[in-house]
Amino acid sequence: MKKRFILVLSMLLMSLTIAGFGTASEASAKAASEKPKIVNVLDENHFLLDDGTFWGESSRVPWKVSTSFVDIQGPAKSSFGITADGKVYSYRLGKMNELPYMKNVAQIGNNGFWLKNDGTLWQDDEQFDDIANIKMFDYQDGSFAVLSTFGDLEAISSAWNEVSSLGKVSNVRSIAVADSGVVVVQENGQATHYSIGYKANEQKLIASDVVQAMWQDGRVLLLVKSDGTVWRGERSSRFDMKPFSGLTNVKKIVDGSGYSNFLAQLEDGSWVHYRSDGRIQPLEVPTLKNMELLVSKSQAKAGDHFTIEVEEEYTNGYKAKRVPTQEELKIDQPQLIERMANNQFKIKAVGEAIITVTVDGISEQAKIYASADKQLQFASNIKGLVYLPIKPVFETIGGKVAYDAKTKSFTIQLGEQTIAMKKDSKIATVNGKQITMGGVVQERGGQMIFSADLLKNMLGAKITWDDKLKTATVNLGSAKLVVISQETEKAIKKQQVGNLSKYVGKTYWVNDFQNWERFLKITVTDIIPKTDPYGDVLYIIQFKNAKGATLKTSQMGASSVEAHLTAGDTLLNYNPYTRYNWSNKTWDLIKKRKVALGMTKEQVLMSWGSPDHKSSIKSNGIVVESWGYGTYSLSIITFTNGKVSNLYQ
Fold first, then answer.
1. Residue 615: how many CB atoms within 10 A of its CB?
2. For the segment 252-277, what is each residue's pLDDT rounded down to a tens digit?
3. 47: closest CA among 310, 278, 276, 269?
4. In angstroms, what is the C-alpha Rg of the chain?
5. For 366-396, what is each residue's pLDDT tens digit?
6. Domains plus CATH for the chain?
7. Whole-prediction pTM
8. Which ranges carry the Copper amine oxidase-like N-terminal domain (predicted)?
9. Taking Cα atoms as reference points, which of 14, 10, 15 lies closest to residue 162?
């Protein structure tokens, strides 16, 4: 879509600074050993470094962003960044957006204005249809000037809302517009002021040997001369130009954020800040003052993910957290830690690693201890010497293990260490140096095992053997690896079961237990410990019945096991059929938890258990006793002289 240029200009009242478009050649790649240098500035608080770092400030709070920019243009609060391949980005309020419609750019202005190499003028993605063949333009405080490729100079002033044709000008280096007129700098160094409005076409030669002209507040003109000096003159004094004292070797100038401030780039590429009080100060690149290394997990397990960040504080007060680059980060045991694509890190193996981050000569370190997430198997203790399985152990601590079946030898790569060992030999070589182990490499339980003292000699590991649990523990600093033996499971079970083992082999008859058949004969065959997710040990009692079938209880605590196997309420420790010589009919009623007239107290107790309430009366040699069961729904059994005479349910 195209639109009218003059119509848009007549509506513009905002102040916009237009700057020349920089090319990739103006920003050189910074060598890793060099300190970054300033490529271009927007004001004293906003500048681009040659490593792509863009420094700025919002509400007096400094910020920093890494970019691929080779140049920046525009005012500080709404700037543009240009990449080496010609892409243009807008940067405003901390947000960076690519502007894909801006291609073949010759010059960038503010408020979306830009000039294309073909001489067309655009605002954002819309081309002006009433203006073409433009070589350059400038905009300041509502005043606009354009120079055509034919040398025609035209301008419109914020104070004079008509286009002024100012004539033809040749060999133009740059133009700078204010509401009073346009200053044209030609290739021969002449700077001429062209008036706008009712004095249109009035010209005044201001100075010679000029390389740049810049307005401040529309009334003060600054000129940079070819000898590196900077001159100042006011419109009210008819541009009686005076040099700035102390400013030499200046290449170009950029307006500052304060009144009468400006920035000057010197011939050596450095920048200085000229203040309104006459002070000249170097524009310093903020440098790193303090750094803290932040590791989200210092103690982890193999397979865990964690983050590594640095919290930086710069000399200008800027503080931020970020993930260190690959070049800044060093891990002394790289086989233990893997960098993931999402800036997370993963523990690959067991061990202790030192993480070092170095930024701008400042280094910080942190240790991370990675223990095994599960136990390994096949540890052995042979005549007091601890042996461990070769392949599982070395792979768990980050090694790569190769086995030659013909020679029965192992080659292990562990970080920068190359280890070799062979079956039936005590000799191991580590990076070509021989180490004599406590015992020979041998096979046991289908596994090739080695003497664990090798880890002590190689890595400073501490090896301990728990004779009760029959386990080996390898400590690498604070990292831990546990290797169990073939006897460990039995030893752990023995420890967990403890005194409960005394019940194994005892026989019981079911009374009120696990909803099993009443008076079933069962024998304890095992007490099985189970550890719940909270680390508490629970138990399953395993029985066999008279037919040889296995029965298992639900999990319960040790006190419940004791109660069931000793109290005699849920499980009877005697055979009720032989103790009580009752009829089959009575036993059938009891097994079904029924009560019938004529039953004795013992039979009722066996059927229903102990009552909740009791009462009795005696009269004329007759004893009447009542038993109550329940609280809200009451069942009452009445005994007369010891036998059930009434039942109320």
1. 12
2. 999 998 788 999 999 999 999 999 89
3. 269
4. 46
5. 999 999 999 999 999 999 999 999 999 999 9
6. 1-23+35-132 (no CATH), 145-285 (2.130.10.10), 288-371 (2.60.40.1080), 380-483 (3.30.457.10), 491-577 (2.30.30), 593-648 (3.30.1450.10)
7. 0.67
8. 383-473
9. 10
